[in-house]
């Protein structure tokens, strides 16, 4: 692992020099236009028989019952980018259920240290609010959960959830409003995902041991199957098919708009949305949980911009 890491670091360094010298090369695939057909970037990798596409080819449903959950994932792996999709969550009684949408670097028998950026929707009994939980793993270390209530009913319509991941920050967006920022403060490389490519994943599964009121409300299988619907997929990102060399998407080209200076911090209107939403809707913040973390994680003292 250490050895592989240092090879990548060297490769990134070489490619940065190359980028400065050469005219920016075009990556093998992407950036893509939005919104895309599902098949363009994704496939159902977990129980395809529990998933089905609508006729428009742009909307996929995934289901959970007492036998299995299901899910899909991107065909490519990416280093930095902007990923977005619209999700309509399970209506009615959804206690115990988790609908997830996340980016994660591959984990295998040989690679067990990974990076991950999570959206996790925690279901609830009828009439009670879903919780949106976000989390981040850097170098295999997670435990960075935040939770908030949404300001709309996420089961009534599709709403857009996006991840902006660039060399300076990671931003979680709900309907284009930033709800969380994780910055690269350059103090330690291990703390910011920027050295491993990630796939995009979505899934629905049973987590009634913890999801709803800390595991008190169990999944009621008489309401199965539980179905979540996803549409309006867009992926603007640089492919990195490992173990190949990292992509050279770090140039100044406007083509790589997700990693331009205007996306390195939130702008004025985004800052005001961020502040308002967190004041009004936040339920849990690992940075404020002194019982769990008597000494808070280092990024807890970072400012969001
Ligand atoms: C799942 O539910 C179906 C229909 O209610 C039932 O027939 C089946 O036995 C259940 N399977 C398991 C593994 O509990
Ligand atoms: C479910 O509803 C209860 C009661 O309103 C609430 O305390 C809880 O935060 C809600 N969400 C989850 C995921 O437990
Ligand atoms: C999908 O995207 C289009 C174009 O951006 C938008 O008009 C439409 O409302 C979106 N649909 C959903 C269900 O989010
Ligand atoms: C702030 O950033 C968002 C997302 O990039 C953009 O849509 C919006 O126009 C920007 N607002 C201003 C005032 O620059």
From TrEMBL:
Role, per record: Catalyzes xyloglucan endohydrolysis (XEH) and/or endotransglycosylation (XET). Cleaves and religates xyloglucan polymers, an essential constituent of the primary cell wall, and thereby participates in cell wall construction of growing tissues.
Organism: Ceratopteris richardii
EC number: 2.4.1.207
Free-text description of this protein's post-translational modifications in UniProt: Contains at least one intrachain disulfide bond essential for its enzymatic activity.
Cellular component terms (Gene Ontology): apoplast
Entry's transmembrane regions: none
Domain of life: Eukaryota
Name of the protein: Xyloglucan endotransglucosylase/hydrolase
Residues at the catalytic site: 116 (nucleophile), 120 (proton donor)
InterPro entries assigned: Beta-glucanase-like (IPR000757), Beta-glucanase/XTH (IPR044791), ConA-like_dom_sf (IPR013320), GH16_AS (IPR008263), XET_C (IPR010713), XTH (IPR016455)
